[in-house]
Structures are given as structure tokens and as C-alpha cells.
Amino acid sequence: MTTSRPAPVPAAAQPPAAVPAQAAPPLLQSDIDREVAERQAAYEKARAAGAPVAHHPPRDYLPYRSSALRHPRQPPAAVSGDPDTAELHGPVFGATDVTELDADLTRQHQGEPLGERITVTGRVLDRDGRPVRGQLVEVWQANASGRYAHQRDQHPAPLDPNFTGVGRCLTDDDGTYTFTTVKPGAYPWRNHLNAWRPAHIHFSFFGTAFTQRLVTQMYFPGDPLFRYDPILSSVTDTSARERLVAAYDHGLSSPEWSLGYRWDVVLDGPSATWIEEGR
Amino acid sequence: MTATPPLPPTPSQTVGPFYGYALPFAGGGDVAPAGHPDTITVHGRVFDGAGAPVPDALLEFWQAGPDGSLAGAPGSLRRDPVTGAVVGRDGVEFTGFARVPTDADGHYALRTLPPGGDAPYLSVCVFARGLMHHLFTRAYLREDAGDALLAGLEPGRRATLIAAAEPGRHRTYRFDIRLQGDEETVFLEYV
Ligand SMILES: [Fe+2]
């Protein structure tokens, strides 16, 4: 019955079989690419006209579709701190809040997880370059196949019974944190058709002030998915974006054991010492 | 102290949907020692710009202790060294820190002690999938005419920062967070 088939249409014009005829056309990578490029160009034009560097992503960033209804439209209200401002102080953590094993994500189960064993280490600093000491660092990540141990992650990649993908530690006197883990896999998500996240580890940091709070993601150098990812691209400043990418450091690799990555972090926001020093 | 320019900060990225095994912890909203007579409950819901509940937000609270101290104390996620499980605060030190995920209805609840001193607010940090950069706000347990932030807001906006005592409920305060829209919560920037 081949003669009754309609003429083939170009692949890009074919709706996926699962989409009903009346549904909106699926959002394609090319749509996202165009939106990302428009925002990138607008930022660079503003910079050329003297606008300040945007170190953080704008909260209103449509290429990441989930942001649409979850960002405020009103500008933030300015709070100028004094020593009694609660946010210029912050929560503290100590030896009772972590156990020795927490920083090694490969030793939390009876067996060893599958994947490429890695060490990730770096220093946590404030904007004056002072180490953030004794503070909590938390991480979470997908396993080597790109699957989270989370029931809402339905990516049909294997779970690893020996990997939960969660760790924590306190920074030392030098501000250094260190984790042993496996390299996470890339994974698909549903922002648009054929959307894939580059491999990343989620990180959470506390500073000496609550204003320095940071949750972010660390990426691996040279990932071919960077240019397709609206979450990384939401950081429109190129050098800021590069600060989210760890460096492979051969000196941190262990012979016949693991590969090493270095990623230093600088916490933004006024710290308590800014106030003490009268700035 | 120094003429060197400040280091450029590491950018924020969204917390995403999959922080569940990492960030929430047992007793994360139980800052008050169990059975403390001064305990208050602060609760509410988080809504998006369409008025829908946000079921995957994570809220953190930081506050002065009942004595007004802003020093905090370790032990919010005290661990059992045998099993590694979180065993909760020791019921003696007031850590001042809470972390509570919203449930499927976008609801959260926190049990704490009122902050002492001059500043009657809980500082709130909001994380969520779709939110590129966390948001700060404050839950005031009373309207304070002398508070510079509240004084600078027009009344409708100011009301979004007030955790109102709920009639008929013992020592219970309601604090909803609206990420976007007509009754959008006032979010803060520290300068
Ligand atoms: Fe992720």
C-alpha cells in the first residue's frame, strides 16, 4: 500500500506521533536557541552601552519555561543593613551536622556505584578573597547514567542501587571543600523537544551572612551540551558563565583511582564584615 | 582595607526539581524545642503567577533567638554517627535555622520561638524549580512602625510581609508567598 502514503515531509516539519493534531507545535531546540541568542545579544548591547555586569541570571528568563510564572515582576525592595539586620548574620553548622562519610558519595551503600570516580575540590571565598571557614556545603547529582534517585525522575536510565547522589561537608580553615563521587551523566528534561542537561553537580553554600546564600550548579569542561542548555545560558555574561565550569586538574587525579576537578566559588552579597568595616 | 576590586561572584543556578534527598531534613521546620510553651507556628502556601500552589519550593528561615542573639548555633541537622541519619536538634541550643519543603498543596509549616530583640521578623529565602536565583523576603510577626523597610512600603505591599495571627488558632501565624501577580510578595535586595 505504499502508493497511498503521503509524500514525505522534512523531518523538522513532522509533528511527533504522540502530539494531537490540534495541539500547539512542540517547542524545538531551534526556538530555544533563537530566544537564548536574542537575550545574549541584548545583554551584550546593554554592556556596550555601559550597563553593569550581570553576574547572576535574570529571574525572568523565558527560554527556561518553568521561570515564566515563578519570577516576581516588581523590583526588589532595598534593605540597607546595620549590625542588627538578621540577614547580615546567618546559620552556623558544626561537627554534629555532618559525618565523615558524607563527603564520599561512593561509600554510602554496600557496593560501589558504577561510573567514572572523580574528586571535586575547591575553595569557598567571599568577594574580598577571605576563606569561608567551617560552613556547610551540600551536593546532589544524577548517577553516571543520568538518573536521579528521585521518584519524579522518570528518565528511563538505570538507577544505581549503590548511589544516592547526595553529600555534604564543612569547609576547612582554608575554605576548602572536597567530595569523592562519580561523574554524573547528562539527562533529558521536558523544557522543549530533545532538551538535555549537560552533566552537572548541584551545590548549596552558606556564607557568614544569610545574604551570601548560594545554590548553583557546577559543570564539567568541554561539554558539547553547553550551547543547547537554557539553564546555563541564563547566565548571559560569558565570563560569569565560565565560572560555573570546573577545571580538570591532573594534579588532583589519583593514579589508578580517580580523576580530579577543581572548582573555586565566590559568594556574593554583603557579608557581616562589610558592616563591621563600615562599608 | 584593600584597593583590589572585589572578586566576581559565582552565579546562581536554579535548585531544580531533584534536591529532595539532599536538602530537606527530618525536623527541618522544628526550630523550637519540643513542648516549649512559647512555641509559635508559622505556616502558609507558596503560589505562582497563575495562583497555582508551588509544590516543589524549598523555604529556609533564619532568625534571632528568643534572647535576641544573632549568633545562631550548630546542630540544625545533627547526625547519628552510627546510622548517619538526621536525629534533629538537641532541644537545648536554639539554632535559628529552618528548612522546609512545600507539600503537594504548596503548604509549609514551621514551629519556632519568636525572635527576641528589636527585629520581630523571620528572614525567608525561597528556592524553586524555575527560579533562577533565590528570593529573599521577611515574615514580620507584628507591624512595627519603627521598621525602615515596612515604613518605606505602601500599605498594600507592606501587608505581604506581615504574618497575621490566625483567629481561633493558638499562637499560629499565616504567611503566604506569592511569587508573581497582583498580590506579589515584596522581595528584598540587600545593599
Ligand atoms: Fe540536575
From TrEMBL, chain A:
<dbReference type="InterPro" id="IPR012785">
    <property type="entry name" value="Protocat_dOase_b"/>
</dbReference>
<protein>
    <submittedName>
        <fullName>Protocatechuate 3,4-dioxygenase subunit beta</fullName>
        <ecNumber>1.13.11.3</ecNumber>
    </submittedName>
</protein>
<feature type="region of interest" description="Disordered">
    <location>
        <begin position="1"/>
        <end position="25"/>
    </location>
</feature>
<dbReference type="Pfam" id="PF12391">
    <property type="entry name" value="PCDO_beta_N"/>
</dbReference>
<feature type="compositionally biased region" description="Low complexity">
    <location>
        <begin position="10"/>
        <end position="25"/>
    </location>
</feature>
<dbReference type="InterPro" id="IPR050770">
    <property type="entry name" value="Intradiol_RC_Dioxygenase"/>
</dbReference>
<keyword id="KW-0560">Oxidoreductase</keyword>
<feature type="domain" description="Intradiol ring-cleavage dioxygenases">
    <location>
        <begin position="120"/>
        <end position="148"/>
    </location>
</feature>
<dbReference type="InterPro" id="IPR024756">
    <property type="entry name" value="PCDO_beta_N"/>
</dbReference>
<comment type="similarity">
    <text>Belongs to the intradiol ring-cleavage dioxygenase family.</text>
</comment>
<dbReference type="InterPro" id="IPR015889">
    <property type="entry name" value="Intradiol_dOase_core"/>
</dbReference>
<feature type="region of interest" description="Disordered">
    <location>
        <begin position="38"/>
        <end position="91"/>
    </location>
</feature>
<feature type="compositionally biased region" description="Basic and acidic residues">
    <location>
        <begin position="38"/>
        <end position="47"/>
    </location>
</feature>
<dbReference type="InterPro" id="IPR000627">
    <property type="entry name" value="Intradiol_dOase_C"/>
</dbReference>
<keyword id="KW-0223">Dioxygenase</keyword>
<dbReference type="GO" id="GO:0018578">
    <property type="term" value="F:protocatechuate 3,4-dioxygenase activity"/>
</dbReference>
<dbReference type="Pfam" id="PF00775">
    <property type="entry name" value="Dioxygenase_C"/>
</dbReference>
TrEMBL record, chain B:
<feature type="domain" description="Intradiol ring-cleavage dioxygenases">
    <location>
        <begin position="38"/>
        <end position="117"/>
    </location>
</feature>
<keyword id="KW-0560">Oxidoreductase</keyword>
<dbReference type="InterPro" id="IPR015889">
    <property type="entry name" value="Intradiol_dOase_core"/>
</dbReference>
<comment type="similarity">
    <text>Belongs to the intradiol ring-cleavage dioxygenase family.</text>
</comment>
<dbReference type="InterPro" id="IPR050770">
    <property type="entry name" value="Intradiol_RC_Dioxygenase"/>
</dbReference>
<dbReference type="InterPro" id="IPR000627">
    <property type="entry name" value="Intradiol_dOase_C"/>
</dbReference>
<keyword id="KW-0223">Dioxygenase</keyword>
<dbReference type="GO" id="GO:0018578">
    <property type="term" value="F:protocatechuate 3,4-dioxygenase activity"/>
</dbReference>
<dbReference type="InterPro" id="IPR012786">
    <property type="entry name" value="Protocat_dOase_a"/>
</dbReference>
<protein>
    <submittedName>
        <fullName>Protocatechuate 3,4-dioxygenase subunit alpha</fullName>
        <ecNumber>1.13.11.3</ecNumber>
    </submittedName>
</protein>
<dbReference type="Pfam" id="PF00775">
    <property type="entry name" value="Dioxygenase_C"/>
</dbReference>
